[in-house]
Design goal:
Arc Repressor Mutant, subunit A; 7 helices; mainly alpha; 3 strands
């Protein structure tokens, strides 16, 4: 086998062994142990002839493989504890299989890291400059509280009994409902959120709710709540 690679191309002796297995087009589960050991030792010797410094871990692995090969030649099985980590062909296969799995997972992590680098996060900004100092806000009023209040309105709708009469529906747009709410608040200045729902049907409730959200977004109204589960109050700005 011609070696056109350098010792620094590998992350360790197992990486080199795995490369030799793939270069020989072997199945990692059915490697030819003798051939892989010979290829490894030839590679190490070629590096020594080129006066290239070889890390001690590569030489330790070479000693392990020489020990394994000598045992295989004399067909010896360990009966006593050994100072070597690789004492059989099975030990070598297990180490290579585990290393290959580790390497595959590491490559997957590298891909995830590269993908994560494509995302950028914004540093939290100070929004105090956008606060109107001319008015004291009550931060208890928010969309969640409005939603909870809306559920109460729906409960009232369920309990209300339909009248035995013919009803002709008229279309109600958000823009029109905003105008109606604006006129009501100009007259009353403050009012209970639930009191805006004087007609108990789904279309009217939804349009009214969306209108209030739109007015809040446009800073036309102030939404406040004195305490948890208390009444939500709307006030014209």
């Amino acid at each position: 086998m011609n070696y056109n690679f350098h010792i620094n191309d590998f992350e360790g002796p197992l990486d080199l062994l795995l490369h030799l297995v793939k270069a020989s087009k072997m199945d990692i589960y059915e490697i030819e142990t003798n051939k892989i050991i010979d290829d490894y030792l030839i590679f190490i010797k070629s590096m020594e002839k080129l006066n290239i410094d070889i890390a001690s871990e590569y030489l330790v692995m070479a000693a392990e493989l020489i020990h394994l090969k000598s045992k295989m030649l004399i067909n010896k099985k360990d009966e006593e504890e050994s100072d070597y980590e690789i004492n059989s062909e099975e030990d070598l296969k297990i180490k290579l299989i585990e290393y290959q799995k580790y390497k595959e997972i590491t490559n997957e992590f590298k891909k995830l890291e590269e993908n994560r680098n494509d995302f950028y996060t914004k540093i939290p900004a100070n929004l105090n400059e956008f606060i109107d100092d001319n008015h004291n806000y009550n931060n208890n009023g928010d969309a969640i509280n409005l939603y909870e209040a809306l559920l109460q309105v729906y409960e009232r709708l369920k309990k209300s009994k339909p009248l035995n009469t013919k009803i002709t529906k008229k279309e109600l747009s958000i823009e029109k409902r905003i105008g109606e709410v604006r006129n009501i608040l100009k007259k009353k200045k403050k009012m209970n959120f639930i009191d805006l729902f004087d007609i108990m049907n789904k279309e009217y409730i939804v349009v009214t709710f969306l209108s209030i959200l739109e007015m809040s977004k446009n800073k036309e109204v102030i939404i406040s709540q004195e305490k948890n589960f208390g009444n939500i109050v709307l006030e014209i700005r």
